[in-house]
Automatic annotation (TrEMBL), chain A:
The protein, known as: DNA-binding PadR family transcriptional regulator
Protein species of origin: Winogradskyella epiphytica
Keyword DNA-binding applies: yes
Domain Transcription regulator PadR N-terminal: 28-99
Keywords: DNA-binding
GO MF annotation list: DNA binding
InterPro entries per record: Metal_resp_DNA-bind_regulator, Tscrpt_reg_PadR_N, WH-like_DNA-bd_sf, WH_DNA-bd_sf
The keyword DNA-binding appears for this protein: yes
PANTHER family given in the database record: PADR-FAMILY TRANSCRIPTIONAL REGULATOR, TRANSCRIPTIONAL REGULATOR RV3488
Automatic annotation (TrEMBL), chain B:
Record key words, sorted: Membrane, Transmembrane, Transmembrane helix
Protein name: 2TM domain-containing protein
Organism classification: Bacteria, Pseudomonadati, Bacteroidota, Flavobacteriia, Flavobacteriales
TM annotation in the entry: 7-26, 32-57, 69-90, 102-124
Keyword Membrane listed: yes
Length: 124, 139
């Protein structure tokens, strides 16, 4: 019982640290799939991460503004159901190249047989 | 330009209004030799400018963390304060005791400090991409 509590606390602590820095990857993955507006990006992240990554709209808007500022994404304006036009974000060529290189250098290594064996992913 | 953000524009508007009000009371105080009005208007102007710079600067950082070590707000303040002061006296709104040369000297001396600030801004740009701090781009 005591060990379970400690394990849970350690897991939460590790996850909190691990999740920092994940938002960019999830936003890029959402936009890799298709053009999306803010609510769709938010829903994609929460659904595809099984709720482990939650993002507040303010953080999302701030991140999108920054990525737009450094030219890795841009948007098309399209009419929404009501209210002002929606910004449908998508990756620019620079953003696409950045995403590809990031995945090659940091994500693909998890899919080598050696690492998969260490992670015991093949047994599951 | 991408570095002209909504909060910088709001600060510009606030600074313009505050400077015009300040100039009015300063000239009124000088014209009528009211030391108390000159002192109160200068102190109030200084405090309100500082407060608005603090408020809009913080909001601006939350909106888009542009890494300029405060240079955009300093440059804006410089242009507005000195622009309005020179126009105020140049167009004859100042008191008869005010001299255009004093305002020109203020702009020159302040300009030297602005230039030093600009050097720090150029130095800070080395650590930025499109004016955003490299350490603060990705989340």
């Amino acid at each position: 019982m005591e060990n379970d509590k400690k394990l849970n606390e350690l897991l939460l602590s590790w996850e909190n640290t691990y999740k920092k820095g994940q938002l960019t990857l999830w936003i890029f993955m959402a936009l890799q799939e298709s053009k999306k507006y803010v609510d769709e990006i938010k829903n994609f992240i929460e659904k595809k991460s099984d709720g482990t990554i939650s993002c507040e709209e303010q953080s999302l808007y701030r991140a999108l503004r920054k990525y737009e500022h450094i030219d890795v994404l841009t948007y098309d304006l399209k009419e929404g159901n009501k209210g002002p036009d929606r910004k449908y974000y998508y990756l620019t060529n620079l953003g696409q190249e950045l995403f590809n290189q990031f995945v090659n250098r940091n994500i693909k290594l998890f899919y080598s047989t050696e690492i998969k064996n260490i992670l015991k992913l093949n047994e599951q | 330009m991408k570095t002209i953000t909504p909060y910088l524009l709001k600060f510009t508007l606030t600074a313009t209004v505050l400077t015009i009000i300040f100039r009015y009371f300063l000239s009124y105080g000088i014209e009528n030799q009211f030391g108390i009005i000159i002192t109160i208007s200068a102190v109030t102007y200084g405090l309100l400018m500082f407060a608005s710079g603090w408020y809009f600067g913080r909001k601006d950082g939350e909106y888009l963390p542009i890494y300029d070590v405060g240079f955009r707000f300093h440059l804006t303040t410089y242009l507005i304060h000195n622009g309005i002061s020179l126009l105020w006296i140049g167009l004859g709104f100042g008191s008869k005791y005010e001299n255009l040369n004093v305002s020109i000297m203020v702009a020159i001396y302040w300009g030297i400090f602005l230039l030093i600030h600009f050097v720090f801004f150029l130095w800070a740009r080395k650590n930025s991409i499109n004016n955003l701090d490299k350490e603060d781009i990705f989340e």
